[in-house]
Amino acid sequence: MSVVSYELVGDIGVIRLNNPPVNALSHALRIGVQDAVSKAQDDSSLALVLICEGRTFIAGADISEFGKAPMMPSLPELLIDIESSKKPIIAAIHGTALGGGLETALACHYRCALPSAQVGLPEVKLGLLPGAGGTQRVPRLVGVKAALDLITSGTPIAASKALSIGLIDKVVDGDLLSGALEFAKEVIEQGATLKKISDLEVEKQGDSPEFFSELFAEWRITLSKRYRGQEAPQRIVDCIEAAVNKPFNEGLKIERELFMECMQSSQSAALRHLFFAERMSSKVNGLPKDTQLKDIKRVGIIGGGTMGGGIAMNFVNVGIPVTLLEINDEALQRGKDIIAKNYAITVSKGKLSAELADERQGMITGTTDYNELANMDLVIEAVFENLDIKKQVFKKLDAVCKQGAILATNTSYQDVDLIAQATSRPQDVIGLHFFSPANVMKLLEIVRGEHTSDQVLATSMAVAKSIKKVPALSRVCYGFIGNRMLRPYVRESQLCLLEGSTPQAIDSVMQRFGMAMGPLAVSDLAGIDIGYKAREGLSDEQKGDIRTYCIADALYEMGRLGQKTGAGFYQYDPNTRQRIPDPKVLEVIEEQAEKRGVERKDILDHTILQRLTFALINEGFKILEEGIAQRPSDIDVVYVFGYGFPAYRGGPMFYADTIGLETVYKTICEFSKTYGEEFWQPAALLKQLVEEGKTLTQWANE
Ligand code: 3HC
Ligand code: NAI
């Protein structure tokens, strides 16, 4: 079936695009549109309407074609044909006109859209810039400021906003095709003018060239903070500057060069990898497509502490009422207060109205009585991290919850299978591991127990999507994917401290690499007591080598628990909460080094970076070879969406491919000799792929 059709409706030629799922501008689509436009030049049509079938207008260039040999016509070539049409073309937009999709609409002579439509240029999120005239046409149409906002944010805007800034010409109610045909008739009646954006000048409102250079300089600084380490946002400013200072065709040439530069960058390759990784992560290998989903209309949450409150917010935010159970009224009130505080923050940031915040809190019913959970479709346990307590909770749930209810645990480390054994229905038990703050962090690790049913798993994936989380599937192991990999990462940070580094040196290496925060700053934020308490329940063997936690334990024993006590690996300014290096910490480190017989020496930044990132990568390989994660890209999703790993490096596993598996393997073998086999054992899968000369991506695609 052809992806583009053309027919005459009276005086108007209708070009219909039908390339599911999102009408991406594949090669076939570009040829089809080019042919249709060409054909229409010689028929009796007086104007043309370009409209899409399916759920959306064109969602952009076909990202899966990026990085492959270019096929003619390229999108810019096609858009020249569209703009040069001697008959006016009207784009009729529904769903989302994104990236190359919006650029196609901008090459048309007029644009109309349904009220529900959205338009945007999200290329920046893929490490790109709009490469088919977007950076040149948008400022000509809506001005420099609005263009900078739209293109550097990558955030789509609603049709009404697009109309108000002049990006589209008309919002049509009802049937889109009828509205577009009506609009086309008006255009014909007014003399069928060809409104070409490329003929316009950027509106300068009398502002001087100096004004614009200052404006662009300010934007470059702002964007270097907002997109730390990223190239594309800076190149977008270069292009918009060209739109202001140069004729259309020259600007277009600059845009093309910079687009190709971005396209070939490792940053864009990483962000494109993540685009597909994020969509792939909700797919469970071997799960029948027609698995029937359970209806989730009521959710129970047990424990209204740090996590429970945030988890509750996710559900009420999408209209699903929550019953929150706590041990007593006081704890319940505390939980409700945390939720109220979180909502107050959202309201104060202008992200939510006070009325909506009240309405959502009104959807949370507090209780201390398990019987009130009898009718819940899903119950999520978020009580203390203690296996016995969790088992007791699940035993009670088994007794009161209706048959078929999903019983989930938010545990960070405990064995989901042991928790499931406390019930008579292990097939209904699953891990739903949210990340703190649970109302903000996008990751949801879904932990499949030995007996978890397909239906429970498929429903959990769907629940993740409905509450706007990015799911990643893990099998049961200590710490699942994310926290298991964190252990060797933290281990290396502690060993680097002991062997000669400082918290600020380690954190600054990792921040320059792009991590949202360095490991010691994270430790202070989460609380040094968390690791200490987790270790309390472990045998010496389970705790591992004392050198990997002796500094943290010493700080704990000094009452330095992190930000909450004003000091941990750093001191904190009581007013600004700013981190301040603390000489006392250095004393503690030196004392511990002496006690453990470790001689402190300078450690190169490069070595710190390799020790920390390769520790993550090596554990990631072990997780893959054990089948804990389904695919490398799921691990990347976990680290980018849950642990602040820089998206523009694609996640730890994609990063491993970027630097080369052989380098990683050889360095780990060296580390094994230098720092000890007890810490460094290259994963068997890593060794195997190096021997086979394969990348991880190749292995995953086999
Ligand atoms: N190219 C190729 N495949 C795409 C695609 C694209 N531009 N956009 C979406 N898809 C695929 C997805 O991978 C997914 O495939 P799957 O079903 O096999 O997993 C399928 O379409 C459906 O996508 P979603 O699951 O994301 O569907 P939603 O309904 O949730 O969202 C959407 C739809 C809002 C259109 C969202 O897919 C989206 O944001 N797409 C990307 C838009 C984008 O970034 N466009 C710019 C591309 S770059 C460009 O145009 C360069 C130009 O300037 C030259
Ligand atoms: P928390 O200590 O802040 O809250 C736990 C709450 O559970 C308390 O309010 C307590 O009163 C309540 N509670 C305890 N026993 C109960 C019972 N039998 N019935 C009902 N309520 C009970 O703990 P937090 O941090 O919210 O952690 C909860 C769970 O989430 C733990 O399993 C933890 O490992 C996990 N988790 C924690 C993360 C974090 O960053 N804090 C991140 C991801 C998971």
Automatic annotation (TrEMBL):
Gene3D superfamilies: 1.10.1040.50, 2-enoyl-CoA Hydratase, Chain A, domain 1 (3.90.226.10), NAD(P)-binding Rossmann-like Domain (3.40.50.720). It comes from Glaciecola nitratireducens (strain JCM 12485 / KCTC 12276 / FR1064). GO terms for biological process: fatty acid beta-oxidation. Pathway: Lipid metabolism; fatty acid beta-oxidation. Keywords: Fatty acid metabolism, Isomerase, Lipid degradation, Lipid metabolism, Lyase, Multifunctional enzyme, NAD, Oxidoreductase, Peroxisome. Belongs to the enoyl-CoA hydratase/isomerase family. Residues 299-472 form the 3-hydroxyacyl-CoA dehydrogenase NAD binding domain. It holds the Pfam family ECH_1. GO terms for molecular function: (3S)-3-hydroxyacyl-CoA dehydrogenase (NAD+) activity; enoyl-CoA hydratase activity; isomerase activity; NAD+ binding. It catalyses: a (3S)-3-hydroxyacyl-CoA + NAD(+) = a 3-oxoacyl-CoA + NADH + H(+). Signal peptide: none annotated. InterPro entries: 3-OHacyl-CoA_DH_NAD-bd, 3HC_DH_C, 6-PGluconate_DH-like_C_sf, ClpP/crotonase-like_dom_sf, Enoyl-CoA_hyd/isom_CS, Enoyl-CoA_hydra/iso, NAD(P)-bd_dom_sf. The keyword Oxidoreductase applies. The gene is fadN. The keyword NAD applies. It is found in: Peroxisome. Residues 479-572, 608-694 form the 3-hydroxyacyl-CoA dehydrogenase C-terminal domain. This is Fatty oxidation complex, alpha subunit.
